[in-house]
Design a protein that fits this description.
Distance between the termini: 55 Å
CATH superfamily of the largest domain: ATP-grasp fold, B domain
CATH class of the largest domain: Alpha Beta
Shape: globular
Number of helices: 12
Number of domains: 3
Bound molecules: adenosine-5'-diphosphate
Radius of gyration: 20 Å
CATH topology of the largest domain: D-amino Acid Aminotransferase, Chain A, domain 1
CATH architecture of the largest domain: 2-Layer Sandwich
Mean pLDDT: 97
Strand content: 25-35%
Helix content: 25-40%
Oligomer: single chain
Order of helices and strands: EHEEHEHHHEHEEHEEEEEHEEHHEHEEH
Length: about 375
């Protein structure tokens, strides 16, 4: 009997690539579905389907070729996945995707399951925008309810001029959120098998132009706050009945934390776990998918993760060639490099924020 299992991944980007690498280390095969023939994960997976995420036949073909299916792409349409969840082994189900695909539903769901959020209001036209501005005040952040990522589809409103400039956004349903003058942003990545929830050490995230730039682990916060964040996050996952992997991003302010958004897939802020922890987010997701017991991760040493966008790609290659101890350069192998495109990341193990600033920050485009 051949016991090798095949994991199907909807999406073949860098997240799919890193899931596939860990799947191989645990003895599984991988089949990926992606519309781009040069998707990063195709370079390492065992079988591929070039097809669209909204093509029911392509997604079903992936399910047919796999023993268990997961997703690394968040916007898989429900009318495609929901019927397949009945017939194939997609253990995370459609629910966490559904709950996270609309920012209004996502925040309602967070509130209903024990988490604080910034104040917000649904906005559909100029009248509801003006009403929301009067109740939430300025500054505020206007976001499209669906399909936003890396700061796309959002605008900070500080003045009447900003409001007028943002009106064209209202051709699609939006949400207005109070602007949170946070002390810092933090995120937690968890994996649950329905019995146990393991969580990775919480990092402090620094964004630039709406895109994650740096992640410093551990985030410096009181034990009390950290304990509460871990506990309420795990409780949230249990209460929602989510299994598999879930990342939650928080704004931290004055000893309190506020839910910003969640993602039911490996998270960019968890890339540091590959070398910075005793087990990593991709490996634990794969262990869950294969029905193996989960491992509780531990931080190996203070770690810094730097995202490599197109503008830093050449420098990243130089750093890789220099061969520094504790410095791990990941290049995703995307064929086209663009200034704001995520091309790779570098993990510095045994690195403090202060030392990173002193010794490394100057090497990247500011
Ligand atoms: P995306 O889905 O595009 O990543 P987010 O909602 O996470 O969108 O917003 C991207 C970044 O913009 C956040 O990480 C944060 O730095 C900033 N931001 C978003 N919402 C707010 C807010 N309500 N208050 C302050 N900053 C915000």
């Amino acid at each position: 009997m051949n016991a090798t299992k095949t994991i199907g991944i909807i999406g073949g980007g860098q997240l799919g690539l890193m899931i596939a690498e860990q799947a191989h280390l645990l003895g599984a095969r991988v089949v990926c579905l992606d519309p781009a023939a040069d998707a990063p994960a195709f370079a390492v997976c065992d079988d591929r389907i070039v097809g669209r995420f909204d093509d029911p036949q392509a997604v079903e073909e992936l399910c047919r070729r796999a023993d268990v299916v997961t997703y690394e792409f968040e916007n898989v349409p429900g009318d495609i996945l929901i019927p397949l969840v009945e017939r194939y082994n997609i253990p995370q189900g459609y629910r966490p995707l559904y709950d996270s695909q609309d920012r209004l539903r996502e925040k309602d769901n967070a509130r209903n399951n024990g988490l604080l959020t910034p104040r917000y209001a649904a906005v559909d036209d100029e009248a509801s925008l003006r009403a929301a501005v009067s109740s939430l005040g300025l500054p505020a952040v206007l976001k499209t309810r669906t399909l936003g990522y890396d700061g796309h589809g959002q605008a900070v409103l500080r003045s009447e001029e900003d409001i007028l400039r943002a009106l064209p956004m209202l051709t699609v349903p939006c949400i207005l959120e109070e602007f949170v003058p946070f002390d810092f942003e933090a995120s937690i990545v968890m994996v649950s098998d329905g019995r146990q929830v393991v969580s990775f050490p919480v990092g402090r995230n620094v964004h630039r132009d709406g895109i994650l730039d740096l992640c410093f682990v551990p985030a410096e916060m009181s034990d009390e706050l950290l304990g509460r964040m871990k506990q309420l996050s795990a409780e949230f996952m249990r209460r929602c009945g989510y299994e598999g992997i879930l990342a939650i991003e928080y704004f931290v302010r004055d000893g309190e934390f506020y839910f910003n958004e969640m993602a039911p897939r490996p998270h960019n802020s968890g890339h540091y776990t590959i070398e910075g922890c005793t087990t990593n987010q991709f490996r634990e997701l794969v262990r869950y998918l294969l029905g193996m017991p989960l491992e509780e991760p531990r931080l190996v040493a203070p770690t810094v993760m730097k995202n490599i966008l197109g503008q830093d790609l050449e420098e990243a290659r130089r750093i890789a060639a220099e061969g520094h101890e504790g410095v791990y350069v990941h290049i995703y192998g995307k064929t086209e490099s663009r200034p704001k495109r995520k091309m790779g990341h570098i993990t510095f193990v045994g690195m403090t924020p202060e030392r990173y600033e002193r010794e490394w920050s100057d090497r990247f485009v500011r």
